[in-house]
Amino acid sequence: MAVEHFDVLIIGAGISGIGAGRYLKTELPGKTFAILEARGASGGTWDLFRYPGTRSDSDLHTFGYAFKPWRDKEAIASAPRILAYLRETVTENGLEPHIRYHHRVRAAAFDSQTALWTVSVDRAGDPVTLTANWVFCAGGYYRYEQGFTPEFPGRSRFRGTIVHPQHWPEDLDHAGKRVVVVGSGATAVTIVPAMADTAAHVTMLQRTPTYILSMPTRDAIGNALKKYLGPARGHALTRRKNIAMQRSIWRFCQRHPERARRVIRWLNARHLPEGYPVDEHFRPPYNPWDQRLCLVPDGDLFKAIRAGTASVVTDRIETFTEDGIRLGSGEELPADIIVTATGLHVQALGGVPLTVDGAPVNVADTIAYKGMMLSGVPNFAFIVGYTNSSWTLKVGLLCEHFCLLLAHMDKHGYELCRPEPADPDMPTRPFLDFGAGYIRRVIDQLPRQGDRLPWLTSMNYHTDVKILRADHVVDPELHFGKAGSRSSLTSATRADRLLGRG
């Protein structure tokens, strides 16, 4: 039986994979590609998570695609609406025939002699082998199979229900129940007000506070721009406005952390009851944007606290008991349901093991090139979005640059492309300079970044516009060549000089 071959295999049919498919089909219509999706549905995160209130924590004018205007009046959107938007993108761009559901990638091996990846796939329990010129990993950054839950003493004693947001039971009824949500990140601040509507009471139990900002669900300026200028032009201007706003807030927090602390505290105090202990529950020990800020649409978390249907407790867990949680202070929180909103299991490259010419790739030993390729690994690209603004802003730029790269290779007849630092002793640091616990737990398993471009991992949209959209793909540290030995690889600059072309 012949092995099916593609120019590009995209791993993952979530927001990144759908975007990659659209750019390939639009910019390089002659390329063959397939999108391999381990689950039975597209949409990634937005199809997986089913906990109450699941929504975006970025505005959809920037979290959505540049090529597809966000038409809803609500800029902070629920998961079902985001999922509908993604599936509209699939339909409008004819991507459905390219998606292979229940295709879980088990391994990928590159052979320099043939300049091909051989990809081992589990297709609904049956092993399948595919080949491709390029592998494009768009599978996200966390394990879909299991969320992260620390070991809690006494967990087995608890007589109620314990759930993790990543595995929310469809039949869980919390009406009239006492609920404790363990955690203080984006998931926790979403779940608490959503459950507080019908629960007897919801307590957000946190070990450390998180910076939280209220944001209007509707973008009044954006809606006005779309109304008077039309969806496409209004969306583009709103997107530019919000990109600038996100960047300004981040820069202010980085340059003036103490002033940012005071501003955030003042805003929080305005939304909370008079005399509320703001510093105890909403003043983290770290600076703003050392970890991601949590957004609450229209201050829904603060409204629930004011209404008395929700509360915040800052303490450590000593043990679970039969009827709740006993804290380090000695206080016991009664609970019928405990939600462990304690984070994700981050994994590099979707957990897919890579080999190059028979040698296993240790991802932690590689350096990220332009935040999209790995040193020493040919014909392989991946997507990691921004941590300090909307994830999808970087998806579009990376996909555009990837298409430019493939077009350049076609023009010059190259079959191999591999980044390699000119200075093997270049100082490196962690790929993501981010203080979140889910990143710190696996930082030694992720690629590294260098101390200069193109080996820096940029988290600045405007910098990336220059690097990924405006710049040519030619770079002395990006080597091209024909199928054969690794020694045939040369930098595009040298090759073009020898061939007398640019």
TrEMBL record:
<keyword id="KW-0503">Monooxygenase</keyword>
<dbReference type="Pfam" id="PF13450">
    <property type="entry name" value="NAD_binding_8"/>
</dbReference>
<dbReference type="Pfam" id="PF00743">
    <property type="entry name" value="FMO-like"/>
</dbReference>
<dbReference type="GO" id="GO:0050660">
    <property type="term" value="F:flavin adenine dinucleotide binding"/>
</dbReference>
<keyword id="KW-0560">Oxidoreductase</keyword>
<protein>
    <submittedName>
        <fullName>Predicted flavoprotein CzcO associated with the cation diffusion facilitator CzcD</fullName>
    </submittedName>
</protein>
<keyword id="KW-0274">FAD</keyword>
<keyword id="KW-0521">NADP</keyword>
<dbReference type="InterPro" id="IPR020946">
    <property type="entry name" value="Flavin_mOase-like"/>
</dbReference>
<comment type="similarity">
    <text>Belongs to the FAD-binding monooxygenase family.</text>
</comment>
<dbReference type="GO" id="GO:0050661">
    <property type="term" value="F:NADP binding"/>
</dbReference>
<dbReference type="InterPro" id="IPR051820">
    <property type="entry name" value="FAD-binding_MO"/>
</dbReference>
<dbReference type="GO" id="GO:0004499">
    <property type="term" value="F:N,N-dimethylaniline monooxygenase activity"/>
</dbReference>
<dbReference type="InterPro" id="IPR036188">
    <property type="entry name" value="FAD/NAD-bd_sf"/>
</dbReference>
<keyword id="KW-0285">Flavoprotein</keyword>
